[in-house]
Amino acid sequence: MRIMGLDFGSKTVGVAVSDPLLITAQGLEIIRRKDENKLRQTLARIEQLIEEYEVSEIVLGLPKNMNDTMGERAGLSFEFREKLERRTGLPVVMWDERLTTVAADKAMIEAGIRREHRKEYVDKIAAAFILQGYLDYRANKEKE
């Protein structure tokens, strides 16, 4: 059993998966699409990855504003969640993704990745940060 993390954007979806023990998250890939509203191929690719990695749960980043309100992107994320649940039959947990892109960018700077190459990785790394936050939360909750 693994958990998949998704960073849903207007033109990309960053994908990460956990290890089988649910301890660490690894960035997997970035699914790109030409049109924001064309999700059929994106959903099909997610389904392939679910099968390949034996995923039993999905964590989807929830883009909240810094003042804890939700804007248009959050609404689109909830719509994407419904499509994911309907198509995959898996539970989809919404997870606060505030500052994950900032953290991903910072990690790439520290790793010495040049600015022009960071865009190639940021969504995948942000998905890993989203998933890692959820995995850490689950582990801490189990300890209590």
List the main descriptive attributes of the protein structure presented here.
144 residues; alpha/beta; Nucleotidyltransferase, domain 5; 5 helices; 47% helix
The CATH superfamily bears the name YqgF/RNase H-like domain
Structural class: alpha/beta
Number of domains as seen in the coordinates? 1
Strand proportion: 15-25%
CATH class identity: Alpha Beta
Rg from Cα? 15 Å
Per CATH, the architecture is 2-Layer Sandwich
The poorly predicted ranges are none
Helix content: 40-55%
- What is the N-to-C succession of helices and strands? EEEHEHEHHH
Mean pLDDT: 87
Short description:
This protein is α/β, with parallel strands linked by helices and 144 residues long.
Report on this model:
This protein is an alpha/beta fold and 144 residues long. It has a single domain (2-143), classed as YqgF/RNase H-like domain (Nucleotidyltransferase, domain 5, 2-Layer Sandwich), CATH 3.30.420.140. 47% of the residues lie in helices and 24% in strands. It is built from 5 helices and 5 strands; from the N terminus they run βββαβαβααα. It has helices at residues 40-53, 72-88, 100-110, 115-118, 122-143; strands at residues 2-8, 12-18, 25-32, 55-62, 92-96. Strands 3-2-1-4-5 form a 5-stranded mixed β-sheet, with helices on both faces. Helix 3 crosses helix 5 (122-143). It is globular and about 40 Å long. The mean pLDDT is 87.
